Amino acid sequence: MDISKANFGILDGQEVIAFTLVNDSGMSVTCLNYGCIITKILVPDRYGKMENVVLGFDSVEEYLQHSPYFGAVVGRVAGRIKGASFELDGESFQLTANEHGNHIHGGIKGFSHVIWEAADFQEDGEIGIVLTYQSPDGEEGFPGELNVKVTYVLTNDNELRISYEAQSDQKTIVNLTNHSYFNLCGDLKEDILNHQLTMNSQAILELDEQLLPTGQVLDVEGTAFDFRESRLLKDGTFSTHPQNVLVGNGYDHPFVWNEQEERVITLVDPESGRSLRVETDQPSVVVYTSNQLEGDFHIAGVQARKYLGVCLETQGYPDAIHHSHFPSIVLEKGERYRSTTTYYFLAQ
């Protein structure tokens, strides 16, 4: 196993460092101390060919100009917060409004656009990076000084484990996720519409016209949202279900689990033989098929376009602070937020 570092650029006078973790079978994960961004994950196909299975850029400038959160840790709160405001114990907090009057993914900078402190480590059968950030009281409008730690661990079983911890000196709200766009074809040779997705979720959260949860929970039975048996992602692009049409013909929805359901997601690309198994302790996952990914730019030489990647954003329910029947994302003073999501890469 090996860890290497390389200069990835300079941002506001600070060095952006790319850390590359390599296990004994040659799988590698590259991440930055900027935004905790995962830029590359190299895994073998069924013939042993190593290729990148996430969307990412080769320079800091491209991330600044074009990235829709490629590979980044987003927070303090992932997803949208209605009206860019919320109340805690009768006190109102006004957040940065960075999307149609709402707050999304932590604000203009959030956690995805700052330099984190980073340190690498190696233990028996594991290597990793620990990234820490101290978010000051009032940053993007959130109360409390929040100390955050994100740990990336690579094992010899081709397993990438992402652990999150956070603690605040005031009552606040926290909901963290990683926003990687996966494409198991490798090196963006094809889009993800022929990927097969399976997960034991019986319900999604209904979205309104601003893509905010309405508070209603919809049963997936008989719809293109039913992934309890393996289903092609392209099914969502052809579906006439109002929720598929609403998000640009595809998926951009929180799938939710009850406490008894196994929180496992499996993504398979039959062509390459690659598969990804995701296990999480979070109550929901936002599945986003990059329906809005368009623009006059390239990603590793490939023109940006819809359906080039799929995000599997494990997290608490979006906008939970405005829906009392959703699992709470309130973090009490001194309490420790913890969450872990593990990604297993296989070749079949």
From TrEMBL:
User: Per its UniProt entry, what is the enzyme's top EC class, as one word?
Assistant: isomerase
Name the family: Belongs to the aldose epimerase family.
Q: A Gene Ontology biological process annotation?
A: glucose metabolic process
Pfam families linked: Aldose_epim
Keyword Cell membrane on this protein? no
Q: For this UniProt entry, what's an example GO CC term?
A: cytoplasm
The record ties this protein, via InterPro entries, to: Ald1_epimerase_CS, Aldose_1-epimerase, Aldose_1/G6P_1-epimerase, Gal_mutarotase_sf_dom, Galactose_mutarotase-like, GH-type_carb-bd
Q: Which residues bind beta-D-galactose?
A: 179-181, 252
Q: What is its EC number?
A: 5.1.3.3
What GO molecular function annotations does the UniProt record carry, in alphabetical order? aldose 1-epimerase activity; carbohydrate binding
* Species of origin: Heyndrickxia camelliae
Q: Where is the active site?
A: 179, 313
Give me the reactions it catalyses. alpha-D-glucose = beta-D-glucose
Domain of life according to the entry: Bacteria
Q: Which Gene3D superfamilies match?
A: 2.70.98.10
PANTHER family found in the cross-reference section: ALDOSE-1-EPIMERASE (PTHR10091), GALACTOSE MUTAROTASE (PTHR10091:SF0)
- Mind telling me what this protein is named? Aldose 1-epimerase
Keywords noted in UniProt: Carbohydrate metabolism, Isomerase
Pathway participation: Carbohydrate metabolism; hexose metabolism
Q: Which residues form a coiled coil?
A: none
